[in-house]
Amino acid sequence: xxxxxxxxxxxxxxxxxxxxxxxxxxxxxxxxxxxxxxxxxxxxxxxxxxxxxxxxxxxxxxxxxxxxxxxxxxxxxxxxxxxxx
Length: 85
What we know:
Blueprint: H1 3-15, H2 50-66, H3 71-82
């Protein structure tokens, strides 16, 4: 029965991180995390064009609604409409 406490102590010692047993007092190196940016991030907008872009977007959206476009067709239409195509 003396083996159970010994086995528990060994299990705990194996589960603890190695830094817990470091005797030199040095702090562990900080973890470096890379900043992740979404792929669909839009470029920064020019400050003076916001109202014009918004009006153009609304106009194109109304045209797409009138043509009853949905999904990929609407997306393609909106892209072409906004860019003057």
